[in-house]
Design a protein that fits this description.
The structure is a single chain. The chain has a 5-stranded mixed β-sheet, with helices on both faces. The protein starts with a helix and ends with a helix. Helices cover 62% and strands 13% of the residues. With 300 residues, it is of the alpha/beta class. The chain has a single domain, classed as ATP synthase, F1 complex, gamma subunit (Pyruvate Kinase, Chain: A, domain 1), CATH 3.40.1380.10. Helix 1 runs antiparallel to helix 7.
């Protein structure tokens, strides 16, 4: 049995760790709230861009099918995979589940005879993929705590260039969608090529049972196709930016939950160690009493 001093040192160490985990939990909770506010602020802009893109696509009519980002490659041989992870750990399975989902998706593509080009956002994703031996076509690090729109633009620019130049025939994105601080869902989303039915709003119209709505007439300068060509890259950028923001909120929520669990586990461990220390002290007292009694009997 360990001595009182050893157990007491263990208790002191666990209490120090508990203070750290509680502080990290509070920091993550504060950052989570700011991340939630950024997601809420993005929604009106994203909705406005979506409507503008749909209007331009409808106005372009058949010419919309000539926009490169809407044209699917005739033959697919290589697929770009964008994994959105964090720069730091201590967030439970937040990063590992994205890596597993990406590797699983690459395995499915490989079974179908398709190659993969890896793009990773976040140091954890970059290091994990590199450790597994995957060659990365694009790495983006240093902004997972507070991503900016410029970061999404950089990622989108590389992916769009790779798609238009024919280096990849499709682009898939895997990220953690934020639902609540306790729940983050691994989400798989196709970025490129953009589905024309989604851009023109045909999917929504097919679901509506109401009579067609009257739309205002809009004059375009330059022509709708040119405007659509300009809007679609923004559409891809805003999709990536939304994924980055949701991933940030998911990371803070996962870290807050992980640190709370760690603090609770530390409290349980402190109770167990305290009980062990009391037993060790009781054993030492009993031993001392037995020695005193034995000494007294020896003098009798």
């Amino acid at each position: 049995m360990a001595s009182q001093r050893d157990v007491r040192n263990k208790i002191s160490s666990v209490k120090n760790i508990q203070k750290i985990t509680r502080a990290m939990e509070m920091v993550a909770a504060a950052r989570l709230r700011r991340a939630e506010q950024r997601i809420e602020s993005l929604r009106p802009y994203a909705e406005g861009l979506r409507r503008m893109t749909q209007q331009a696509a409808r106005a372009a009519g058949a010419n919309a099918a000539q926009v490169p980002l809407l044209i699917a490659h005739e033959q697919e041989t290589n697929v770009g995979l964008l994994l959105v992870t964090g720069d730091r750990g201590l967030a439970g399975g937040f990063n590992s589940q994205i890596i597993r989902a990406g590797v699983r998706l690459a395995g499915e593509l490989n079974s179908a005879g398709l190659g993969s080009s890896w793009y990773a956002s976040g140091r954890r994703g970059v290091s994990s993929l590199g450790f597994r031996g995957f060659e990365l076509a694009g790495t983006y690090v240093g902004f997972s705590d507070r991503p900016a729109y410029a970061d999404a633009r950089e990622i989108a620019g590389d992916l769009i260039t790779a798609y238009v130049d024919g280096h990849v025939d499709r682009v898939e994105m895997v990220y953690n969608a934020y639902i609540s601080p306790l729940r983050q869902t691994v989400t798989h989303e196709r970025l490129l090529p953009l589905r024309q039915a989604t851009i023109t709003g045909e999917d929504e119209e097919a679901q509506e049972s109401e009579e067609p709505r009257v739309r205002a007439s809009v004059d375009y300068e330059p022509d709708p196709e040119a405007i659509l060509r300009r809007l679609l890259p923004d559409y891809v950028e805003i999709s990536i930016y939304r994924a980055l923001l949701e991933s940030t909120a998911s990371e803070h929520g996962a870290r807050m939950t992980a640190m709370r669990n760690a603090s609770d586990n530390a409290g349980t461990l402190i109770q167990d160690l305290t009980l062990e220390m009391n037993r060790a002290r009781q054993a030492e007292i009993t031993q001392e009493i037995m020695e005193v009694v034995a000494g007294a009997e020896g003098l009798a």
